[in-house]
Structure formats: C-alpha cells, structure tokens
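RECORD TYPE: inverse folding
INPUT: structure tokens
STRUCTURE:
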C-alpha cells in the first residue's frame, strides 16, 4: 500500500509548492538574449524569460525557489554557478533601480504638491489683499488671483498623482524584482 499523507503534511507540501516557481527550459540559452554572444556571467537576460518569470510570480506572496528545469544531458555545473550569480546580480540591480525610480517619482510628487500648496496660499493672500487695494492695482490682483488659483490646484493634484498613481507601475516592478532577488535559484533535471 501507498503512504497516506495526513492533513498537516499535505498543507506543508502545498506551502512548499506555493513558494516555488518551476520553468522548463530547452537549454541555458533560453535564459539569455539570443543576440548577446558574451559568456553567461555577462549576458543580457532574455525578455521571454523575464515575461515567464513575471507570469509565474504574479499573485504570489513570495517566492522561495526558482527552479530551472534543464534536460539532464545538457547540464553543466560550472555554467550553472555563473548563471545563478548572473541572475542574482540582474535581479538585485533592477531592484535597486526600481526603488530609485519610485523614490524619484515620489520626491517629484511631493515637490509639486508643495509648490501647488504655496500657489494656493498666494492665491488666498491675493484675494484677501485685493479688498484693501483700489484702483488700477485691483485689475492686477484679480489677474494674479485668477491665474494662481487653478495653477495651484492643478499642481497640487498633479503632485498627488505622481505620489499615488504614477509610481504604481514602478512599484509592480519593485515587487517582482524583490521576490526574484530573494528566491534561491536551483537547476534540476527533467
């Protein structure tokens, strides 16, 4: 008779499988760009490989292992060491870049929001001081008020958009690279 799994063992197996990504590859070259003749330690990562990795990690909380399945007759342990190192370097580099991009976008958003707020304060001051000024300067205060108020609102909202909306695509990249950078890379036979 076969081995009967109890419920806790099945749950443990399910957890292990959830934290793993397995990709079947024809050769090591499937990981890298076809147009890059450099050695594995320097080659560009293939867009197709990255798309498959993104698809595999989508909606996963974390990735513990990236299992790359290679035909047994094509495996070369020395190459695998260089490939693992190259993948780690690639994911780490892009993780840092995406974090830098998010920070840059959000800083710009805060700056825009701050400048918009200043314009709105100026607009309010112009409105208040317009009452005290009579004559020819009244037109100047009206003109500046009319220009500064919508400009202030626009710049404020644009800043908030940068902080909360424009950074989101980069945030998705950051999450992907964070998961992949933390994953252990394994090569297995198939």
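DESIGNED SEQUENCE:
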């Amino acid at each position: 008779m076969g081995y009967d799994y109890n419920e806790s063992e099945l749950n443990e197996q399910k957890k292990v499988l959830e934290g793993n990504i397995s990709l079947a590859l024809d050769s090591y070259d499937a990981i890298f760009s076809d147009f890059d003749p450099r050695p594995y330690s320097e080659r560009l990562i293939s867009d197709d490989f990255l798309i498959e990795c993104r698809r595999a990690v989508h909606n996963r909380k974390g990735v513990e292992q990236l299992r790359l399945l290679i035909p047994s007759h094509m495996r070369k342990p020395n190459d695998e060491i260089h490939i693992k190192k190259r993948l780690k370097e690639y994911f780490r580099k892009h993780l840092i870049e995406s974090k830098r991009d998010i920070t840059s976008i959000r800083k710009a958003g805060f700056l825009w929001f701050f400048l918009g707020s200043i314009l709105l304060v100026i607009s309010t001051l112009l409105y208040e001081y317009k009452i005290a000024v009579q004559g020819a300067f009244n037109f100047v205060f009206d003109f500046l008020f009319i220009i500064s108020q919508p400009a202030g609102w626009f710049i404020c909202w644009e800043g908030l958009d940068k902080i909360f909306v424009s950074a989101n695509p980069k945030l998705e990249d950051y999450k992907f690279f964070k998961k992949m950078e933390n994953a252990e890379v394994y090569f297995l036979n198939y």
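NOTES: The chain has one domain: 18-189.
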